[in-house]
Structure formats: structure tokens, C-alpha cells
Amino acid sequence: QFVMDFKPGGVMTVGLAYAAKQKPDGYTLVMSGPAYSLVPLINIERSFDPVKDFDPVSVISKRSALMLVSNDTPIRNVKEYIAYAKANPGKITLSTGGQGGPQHLTGSWLESLTDTKLTYVHYKSISTSYPDLMAGRVNMTFATFSAGFPMVKAGKIRAVAIASLQRNSLLPDLPTAEEQGLPGFEYSSWLGMLTVAKSPAAIVNKLHGELVKIAKMPEIKEKMGAEVNLLALAPEAARRHISGETERWRKLTTERNIKLEGN
Q1: pLDDT tens column, 240-262
Q2: 155-202: per-residue pLDDT in tens?
Q3: Could you tell me which residues are beta bridge partners of residue 238?
Q4: pLDDT per residue over 108-162, tens digit each?
Q5: Which of 25, 157, 220, 252 has the greatest number of CB atoms lying within 10 Å of its CB?
Q6: Across the beta sheet with 140-144, what order do the strands follow?
């Protein structure tokens, strides 16, 4: 059995600070995502070290993502985004799950690739911005496919592009951002499991082994759907993936002179 303890805020730093103080017995686990790759780059005083105080168990999955706009925003594809953004610098508002979070940095990458200017609206979590997106109080965001697709299917918002490198079978006619002229453009969306550093290797390996079994189950693959690629990476492979993501964002923040602050 697992007891879920939600501690949002600070681009994961609130939850990580709590977890870092727990015993390294393998019984405190952190469900992480792309925000974890940003924690080493955030300019705040921390009571923990995001690299030394945690060990990856696995990168469990990689998820498809969407570039979304409100229905009253006059944008239906990347070309129209570029034209509208250039004609209206700073007028397009993009919601994020916090300053320095994945949506913020992906938006900055979009600005860099297209020579456009966005205005960012930071929320405590990205899900809390969805009502404002559906109501047209903000214009745009990036979201996982599982979060965005139900709103698109219900006609409450519009999908402009698949923000991953492959199309999704649930929206087969929607091109990727790369297909629409943004080379390599991908909103980072993955799910990982961490534990407190120096936890028993036997428990870490046991957890990873169970994740591998789960990832192979046909019923799990069916339940996860076409938007999720089940990986169950081994601990060292997971560490390499997370480190690579951190360096990717470090390069962008340096080039764009983005100062990351927790919130």
C-alpha cells in the first residue's frame, strides 16, 4: 500500500525539502517529473541538495503533450501563432505551473525559435490555470496529452500542435510542432520515481523490478493509452535521463538569461 502526501509549490522544492528529511529506508518515495530537472537551476536557498539527497528508482514513462490555446484566441497552428505573436508582441498570455517551471521554459524556447514575445501568468500548479484557459482569461499553455485531450475533445479549448516529436493516434490529423517548422521542439513530460539517497539497494532494485513487470502488463498499456510510452528505465539510465534534461534547460536558461526563482 502507498500513502499519498501532496506537497505542491516551489517547482517541487516544497515536497523535496520534506522528503529529504525522511529516513533513507526505501519507504519514502517521490513521484517526479520535468520540474525535478529544473530544481538544481533554481536560485533559492535550499535545505537539501536535489542531486545528492535523492536517488532515482526509475523514469517510469514519457508522455505525449499538447500546445493549447483558448477558443477565442485567433490561432489554429504554429504559423498563425508566429504571425499573431509578431503582430502583437507580448499580447499572448501563457499560463505556467510556476515561474521557472516546464511551461515557462518551454514558452521561452518557443520565443527563441520564433523570435516572438509572450507574457507569462504563473499559477501554483498548471491544473489551476485550466479554468482561466477555458474561459479565455489566459490565451495559451502546454500540457500533457492526458490533461489536455479531454478539454480539447469536449470543445472547451483548441489544440494547436502536438508538443512531442511524434503524432498521437487520438488526434492523428494534428501535426507536431516540429512538422510545423519548430525543429526538435518538445515539451518535456515524463514521470519518474525517486527515493531518499542511500536507501537500501535491494529495495530500490525491487521497486524497479516491479515497475518493469507493470510496464509489460497489457491491461496497464491499454489503460495508459496512446499518450503514454511506458519506459521503466533502470536507476542509472534514469539518472542519465534526468541529468540530460537538467543540462538541456541549463543551456536554455543561460542563452536566454532566465533567472529561475522558486515560488
Answers
A1: 999 999 998 899 888 888 777 66
A2: 999 999 999 999 998 999 999 999 999 999 999 889 999 999 999 999
A3: none
A4: 999 999 999 999 999 988 999 999 999 999 999 999 998 999 999 999 999 999 9
A5: 157
A6: 119-122, 93-96, 140-144, 65-70, 157-162
Nearest of 59, 39, 12, 10 to residue 246 by alpha carbon: 39
pTM greater than 0.85: no
Q: Is 125 left (phi over 0), alpha (psi -120 to 50) or beta?
A: beta
Q: Which three cell numbers stand for residue 219?
A: 491491461
Amino acid found at 212: V
Grid cell digits, residue 62: 514519457
DSSP symbols for the chain: ---------TTTHHHHHHHHTS-SSS--EEEE-HHHHHGGG--S--SS-TTTTEEEEEEEEEE-EEEEEETTSS-SSHHHHHHHHHHSTTTSEEEESSTTSHHHHHHHHHHHHHT---EEEE-SSGGGGHHHHHHTSS-EEEEEHHHHHHHHHTTSEEEEEESSSS--TTSTTS-BTTTTT-TT-----EEEEEEETT--HHHHHHHHHHHHHHHT-HHHHHHH-TTEEE----HHHHHHHHHHHHHHHHHHHHHHT------
Task: Pick the closest to residue 263 from 7, 6, 38, 10 (CA basis).
Answer: 10
pLDDT the model gives residue 9: 78
